[in-house]
Amino acid sequence: MLLIIGCTASPLYPLHRHEHHESRKPLQTFRPYNIAHRGSNGELPEETAPAYLRAIEEGADFIETDILSSKDGVLICFHDVTLDDTTDVANYEEFANRKRTYEVQGENVTGFFTVDFTLKELKSLRVKQRFSFRDQGYNGKFQIITFEEFISIALEAPRVVGIYPEIKNPVLINQHVKWADGKRFEDKFVETLKKHGYKGSYLSKDWLKQPVFIQSFAPTSLVYTSNQTDLPKILLIDDITVPTQDTNQSYWEITSDSYFDYIKHYVVGIGPWKETVVPVINNYLQTPSDIVKRAHAHNLQVHPYTYRNENKYLCFNFNQDPYQEYDYWVKKIKVDGLFTDFTGSLHKYQEWTSSNRRNNSDDKTASKLLHKIASLVASY
């Protein structure tokens, strides 16, 4: 019951300045990373300050975000290139004439694009929950935040929390946003990280102090940024039917051994859609591919996305139990990090299966502990 009360009574905090912590608990590196996908967005609207604060409270190792730009060149945290699905932009008469059609990754997309709004205008909007089956109670309460505001949340956390920003749709951004100094989206992205002290190669002293992974679906952006910073980078990989957005390479090309040999000079890992790692047919898992084994053979980490607790996202093999899913991916597939919408559940799994828990005489296995908790909550 205390566990349940603790989860449901977690407070929401406004974005504000925290005092600096001289001696913070370090990042854990002995187990797969718990990556809060757009914050704790299973509970709160994605990529908002409260979603990130909740994720940190729930035990995230990294908070993840997508970086786009406003019309006036300010980097913001937002996933879609259009504002339609996760803001109330349609309610503003003064913005009715802003709807545009642009080519995005080879397709015409119509909507209200972030690149057609100044930061001040974007800040006037309010964010809403993307999925109708999730809590709608926080709709209209939170603003879009900037990249720098996102960084401040991580740096002011009571323990070391890494950030995992994505260079999102760089082709579109570089087409529609022009910076006065002639620099491009990727330049501004790296400059922001440097401004706030992010530096160092993977697991270096500097990196462990302020951990970060730079991610993108655009290989050329990762190669370009590798000439500006030695911070670790992750190549994101989409569904097998989707070519890369900037080089038009197929899934099969970018997951080949020869490409892994090439890209390992620029990245430390890959972030594949999890169904390309383990295919799913009629909601049942199929035989796992060899992508993880081959990536590891090239000294590349593997951080699949996205893990979600709702039954519609859980394969029948897991008996509608997200902890079974985590266990499968960590122990059988042996991934190095997991993007999850439910940071708290992954953290609890990690704690229940940690070595010190397994050595406990009362709870030698995670299974026993899970059964014990199930018996406690059964009557509720």
Automatic annotation (TrEMBL):
This is glycerophosphodiester phosphodiesterase. Gene3D superfamilies: Phosphatidylinositol (PI) phosphodiesterase. Residues 32-350 form the GP-PDE domain. Pfam families: GDPD. Its EC number is 3.1.4.46. Belongs to the glycerophosphoryl diester phosphodiesterase family. GO terms for molecular function: glycerophosphodiester phosphodiesterase activity. GO terms for biological process: glycerol metabolic process; lipid metabolic process. Keywords: Glycerol metabolism, Glycoprotein, Hydrolase, Signal. GO terms for cellular component: vacuole. It catalyses: a sn-glycero-3-phosphodiester + H2O = an alcohol + sn-glycerol 3-phosphate + H(+). It is an enzyme of class 3 (hydrolase). The keyword Hydrolase applies. InterPro entries: GP_PDE_dom, PLC-like_Pdiesterase_TIM-brl. It comes from Lupinus angustifolius.
